[in-house]
Design a protein that fits this description.
Blueprint lengths: L2 E7 L5 H17 L6 E7 L2 H5 L3 E4 L4 H10 L3 H10 L4 E4 L1 H6 E5 L12 E6 L10 E5 L14 E5 L4 E5 L8 H4 L4 E3 L8 H7 L4 E6 L2 H7 L6 H4 L2 E7 L2 E4 L10 H17 L1
Parallel strand pairs: 1-2, 1-3, 3-4, 4-13, 5-6
Antiparallel strand pairs: 5-10, 6-9, 7-8, 11-12, 12-13
Helix pairs in contact: 1-10
The protein binds glutamine.
Length: 272
Amino acid sequence: MIKITVGVLALQGAFYEHVVLLKKAAASLALEQVSSSHWEFLEVRTPQELERCNALVLPGGESTAISLVAARSNMLEPLRDFVKVHRKPTWGTCAGLILLAESANRTKKGGQDLIGGLDVRVNRNHFGRQTESFQAPLELPFLTSSGEPQPPFPAVFIRAPVVEKILPHHEGVQVDESQRGETVVAPSRQAESEAARKAMSRDVEVLASLPGRAARLATEGKSIDADEETGDIIAVRQGNVFGTSFHPELTGDERIHSWWLRQVEESVKRMQ
Ligand code: GLN
């Protein structure tokens, strides 16, 4: 039996809810006899705690606050090493997705530090303010790999970002992005091994999008092109790094957590 330690970055935001749902997911994997791993879940606030982790969740909250506290507690560099140098499995929800993006739009003045790891540009607060939060039933095809039809996933969007552009992979920093105004880019890091390098250069997969963007633009009188017909991109994966715009930890529905733990388990086994 392998022991897998999953950390949840606990500097700010909805970290406790993630821990609860991760435990629930691990219990259901054990019950269904899908996983025989021994899972440990850990709130992470220090580099020493991060070091113990095989995988990490970056919760929703406020990305500016999370990066500020991370910088002050000397966590930014260890986090970049975790994601970009060692390429360990990492999942960011909402603010966490912003931190994992290589490029982010509309950052507050003074900027904010990104961790990076996903070759995407995100638009922060794409869906408006706190009062414009909403819940949408989502079809998530990646959850239906078993072939059995699944009920839609109740996705909660709170000042949620959207992936507005998939970027081509660069070995270093995203140069073109760094030249845009009002954009912040993540610093580059060298992957430690050939396997990590390969994982870094994997294509970004779009795992889910929210329909309705084309219709919304049409009602606003804006022109629609084929790209926009695909809807707003709200879940992506690039190798070991996974990001969702919404908050699966606020629903009590552990399906995405279970799916991700299975990905983590496979990855840990591959790395052994
Ligand atoms: N828009 C927020 C940010 O910039 C994220 C919101 C959230 O995590 N619910 O950090």
